[in-house]
Amino acid sequence: MYWVVFPLASVELVTLSEWLDYWLDTIMAGTIRPSTLNGYRRYADLYIKPYLGDKQISKVTPADVQKMYEVLKARGRVNEHPQYGHQLSDSMVHSIHTMFHGAMKAAEESHIIAKNPTENVPVPKANPKSMQILNDDQLERFMEEIKKDAVWHDFFYTELTTGLRRGELCGLMWADFDEAAGTLAVKRTIHMEKGGRLVAGATKTGRGTRNILLPASTAQLLSERKKHSYSEWIFPNPLKPESPTNPRSAYGHLKALLDSAGLPNIRFHDLRHTFATHALSSGVDAKTLSGILGHAKASFTLDTYTHVTGDMQQRAADIVGGFMTDFFGEELKPWQNAENGAPEAST
């Protein structure tokens, strides 16, 4: 629960803009990841304040909120610049609502407003982009393409054999690499703050901080790379070795590689999905994989990769059917009545 003290004479005059700034700067700062906080600031500055920011927070109604979402969905931001005025996706409006609902809930709990006006307002359902993966042939083409790139080959090879998040991969330091054991300690993630400054922060979740055992080929690759490295970062900025690779640069270079190889225009995160899908398909169990990926629970891994686990269940059923047939013989169907072939009653 949040407790915020405003001068009694000014509480009813607080505008929504003033409250959003206070909520972000005083309540949320330090409690969420800087990248998440920056995202919330963008939602407030670009989408909410232009429509309702000047209104007294106590006078914001559910009808105001619903109208704002409708306008955002139809034409996006206030038309002050040529790049504005585009429609927002359902997922974006849903994300804005999640942030706005949290801010207004804090105002309600702090007695700044009597009731949260975002409660029970119809909101579009989030429709996240479906994952794309590189199939066997496409993965082979991508691996051939990165062989031509001496600067970025090791970066993308490590990604495809570990499934690290982009910021985690950029944040790896040689102190995290145990050459003798062939392991990597994932301890931090690199993100860009407002203004373009790169900052090392905590991993996305508590389970995100983890040790992973590397494939032999990746451990060997990093061992060779370490011999010629003059940076504390495993993958430093090619032009500034004292700094880590910029996640945005990695994203841009991925797009260039995909285009050069004639491959689908996938997201960086889809490389992580590619690793996970191929790992599951090759027999890695979901619990082990969830530890490698840094998921909080194996159930999340199973839910995320149902397109693979469904096939795995079918293969498991086929295997069980195969050895049961080998055990009982083709002529014996233990689930049928031996005399008339009718199914036996279940017990």
Topology:
Blueprint: H1 16-28, H2 34-52, H3 62-75, H4 90-109, H5 136-147, H6 153-162, H7 166-170, E1 177-178, E2 183-186, E3 189-192, E4 198-201, E5 210-213, H8 216-227, E6 236-237, E7 240-244, H9 247-261, H10 269-281, H11 286-293, H12 298-304, H13 306-328
Helix pairs in contact: 1-2, 2-3, 5-9, 6-8, 6-10, 11-12
How would you characterize the overall build of this protein?
This protein has about 350 residues and is mainly alpha-helical. It has three domains: about 10-110, Orthogonal Bundle (DNA polymerase, domain 1), CATH 1.10.150.130; about 135-305, Intergrase catalytic core (hpI Integrase, Chain A, Orthogonal Bundle); about 305-345, no CATH class. The protein has helices at about 15-30, 35-50, 60-75, 90-110, 135-145, 155-160, 165-170, 215-225, 245-260, 270-280, 285-295, 300-305, 305-330, and strands spanning about 175-180, 185, 190, 200, 210-215, 235, 240-245. It has a three-stranded antiparallel beta sheet, with no helix packed on it. A two-stranded antiparallel sheet has the order 3-4. Strands 6-7 form a two-stranded antiparallel ribbon. Strand 1 and strand 2 form a beta hairpin. Helix 2 (about 35-50) crosses helix 3 (about 60-75), helix 6 packs antiparallel against helix 8 (about 215-225) and helix 6 crosses helix 10 (about 270-280). The radius of gyration is 26 Å and the shape is elongated. Mean pLDDT is about 85; it is low at about 80-85 and about 335-345.
